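User: What would this chain look like folded?
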Amino acid sequence: MRKRRLLTVPAVLVVTVLLWTTLPLWVILAAAASPLVPGRWRAPRLLWMAVVYLTIEAVLLVVLAGLWLAAGCGRRLRTAYWEGIHYELVQGVMWVLFSEARRVLHLEVVSEGPSPDAHPGRPILVCCRHAGPGDSFTLIHTLMDWYDREPRVVLKETLAWDPVIDTLLGRIPARFISPGRGTDLETEIGALASDLDADDAFVIFPEGGNFTAERRDRAIARLEGLGLHAMAQRADQMIHVLAPRPGGLLAALDAAPDADVVMVAHTGLDHVLTAGDVWRALPMDKRLVMRWWQVPREEIPSGREARIEWLYDWWARIDTWVTQHRPEDLPSGR
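Assistant: Here's the prediction, encoded as structure tokens.
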């Protein structure tokens, strides 16, 4: 057990118990705050989503402890049988969260273009734009619930401070990465992308972080500082995406020579960047549109430089798609 779980697991359990035991007080406070934003009920919506999330966390921590014992105190957790059970847990949690998001936050997710099941029986490398709150969760939910894929995910190390994410994803193929820790990230990513099965989906966000105008400027300045002036110029022409960092995807392409690539763009919550934005947007009344492009392996060039150009070409295409598909509002108060 990682040392941080000694802190995070008790913290989640204590906060969940305190929330439930004091829930009447929180309901009164949330209702009192509602007249400040007539007709939108922002505080009760957030309170309910917090209750749902923390309750799921607490229950899952107990379930995960039971599974650890049932798997011989963890000895058999890495077998296909137990990995399958943990994938089903992930899928179930995502289903509950997105069902509540549709009902409470008025958020709808729709899909366009050839889906990841267009060529069944073949592993895929999924490259997704990173923008808006929860887009990584949305992608994982879509891959599992709609297309019956088992994702292998590259995540930021900071997400491991969530004890359920830390524990659950530690039992299925996934990698928590931190660019500043001095390890060979491309080697780690290549190892995760190796030996993909026919229903596997390796997931990576080449931009490395959620889009903001400030991060876009920093990414361009970084390329200029490295002397990559042509790439900086191309990045400057893209308005809605960050310059992709190709190293991880290139490592995955080398490690999974039989996998097709799926490019994913989405729009709908692009403008929601901060906690204040989330508050002002509630209820969201938004339709999040996901666009998929399946790239057969034979269309992917060989050679590092050619693949970097190919990736930038695709990112420019994604930027154009986002420009043409602005966020779409749903009828308010459905």
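The chain has a mean pLDDT of 86. If you want, I can go into more detail on any region.
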